[in-house]
Structures are given as structure tokens and as C-alpha cells.
């Protein structure tokens, strides 16, 4: 068994992928190609929209 270094899921050796030097499961590998606007990190960054008044 291999362990996904992103989500910690245990997957068989055949289902492990490499992503930026990390061993990841298929799900995480697919997440890596998720459009930026759906990624939590980028949705945080998007909150710096100039139209949003700062509280
Ligand atoms: Zn994973």
C-alpha cells in the first residue's frame, strides 16, 4: 500500500501518482487540474476583489 501525501488515503501502488514531487492518489491528481476558481486557495485570493469594500 502507498499513502497519498495530500489527503492521506491509502491506495494501491498502481493507483499512486506523482504531483509536484508528492505521491498522491488519483482523486488528488485529478484535483490538481481543477480550474483555479474552484480551488479553495484561489477562491480566497479572489476575495481581494477591488469592488468589495474593506470592512
Ligand atoms: Zn489523495
Kindly report how far apart the N and C termini lie. 49 Å
- Helical amount among residues, as a percent range? 10-25%
Number of helices: 2
Mean pLDDT: 78
Molecular shape: elongated
Low-confidence stretches: none
SSE ordering = EEEEHH
Q: What about the largest sheet?
A: 2 strands, antiparallel
Number of strands: 4
| Number of spatially distinct domains | 1
Protein structure class = alpha+beta
* Beta strand %: 15-25%
Question: How is the largest sheet built, in terms of strand order?
Answer: 1-2
Radius of gyration equals 16 Å
The distinct ligands, each listed once, are: zinc ion
Key descriptive features of the protein:
single chain, 55 residues, alpha+beta, two-stranded antiparallel sheet, 4 strands, elongated, binds zinc ion, TFIIB-type domain-containing protein
Question: Which helices and strands occur, and which strands form pairs?
Answer:
Layout: E1 2-3, E2 10-11, E3 17-19, E4 22-24, H1 26-31, H2 40-45
This protein binds zinc ion.
The site of zinc ion (ZN) has 8 residues, from helix 1.
Amino acid at each position: 500500500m502507498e499513502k497519498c501525501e495530500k489527503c492521506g488515503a491509502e491506495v494501491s501502488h498502481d493507483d499512486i501518482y506523482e504531483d509536484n514531487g508528492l505521491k498522491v492518489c488519483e482523486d488528488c491528481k485529478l484535483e490538481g487540474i481543477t480550474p483555479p476558481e474552484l480551488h479553495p486557495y484561489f477562491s480566497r485570493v479572489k476575495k481581494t476583489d477591488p469592488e468589495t469594500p474593506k470592512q
